[in-house]
Amino acid sequence: MADEEKNEQEETPVEAEASVETPPEPEPEAPPEEPGPPVPEPETPEPMPEPDAEPVEGAEEASAPVAAAPAKKKRKRVARSERRQRPKAKREQTGERKPITRLPKPEHERGRRQERRGVVVSAAMDKTIVVRVDVVKAHPRYKKVVRRSQRFHAHDEQNQAKAGDVVRIVETRPLSKMKNWRLAEVVEAAK
Q1: How open is the CA angle 114-118-120, to the nearest 5 degrees?
Q2: What fold does the segment set 115-188 form as a domain?
Q3: H or E element in which residue 135 lies
């Protein structure tokens, strides 16, 4: 225990000497310059030491000084209320205003709904039919006649269409995930 106290006493004077700092020497003042607009000093970025590597003595002298590019002069930020105001050209006001008139809405169907004509393939679901629409058209480049078919799920409220019927379906709002069409009429009943 006595040894520990001696060690502490020996370390104390060394620490006390290290903690006493000498006051910094005043820098010599530069001669007064001509009055003019203040020029901001260019800031030189200091290289950041890598966290893994320990600083090596004399590394600062070895590294080449970074050439500072002339910095652009930044304009001082001015509050909006203190900025220069540009006068606006004022309209001359007439004494009387015209009343707002609204045009009557035209009475017609919303948009143009698409129509398809096809054959009912399935009527097994309740209030839903599957209609196959065949499209026959010539290929734009090769002029070969190409047959394509597409299947649509259509809403059939009264379950009146049966498999094999030729029907006309009309586009409508989405009724379910697959149904965007509804049965307009049964054109030709199945034989």
Answers
A1: 125
A2: OB fold (Dihydrolipoamide Acetyltransferase, E2P) (2.40.50)
A3: strand 128-138
pLDDT mean over 81-104? 79
The bridge status of strand 145-155 relative to strand 179-188 is parallel
The rounded distance, in Å, linking the Cα atoms of 165 and 180 is 20
Percent of the chain residues past pLDDT 90, beyond the cut:
40
The Cβ of residue 159 has, within 10 Å, a number of other Cβ atoms equal to: 13
Look up the pTM and report it. 0.43
| Residue 131 CB burial class (10 angstroms; 0-12, 13-18, ≥19) | buried
Of the candidates 190, 181, 191, the one whose C-alpha atom is nearest the C-alpha of residue 127 is 181
| Domain boundaries defined on the chain | 115-188
Q: Where are the alpha helices (DSSP H) in the chain?
A: 2-19, 59-62
Condensed to tens digits (0 to 9), the pLDDT of residues 146-160 reads: 999 999 999 999 999
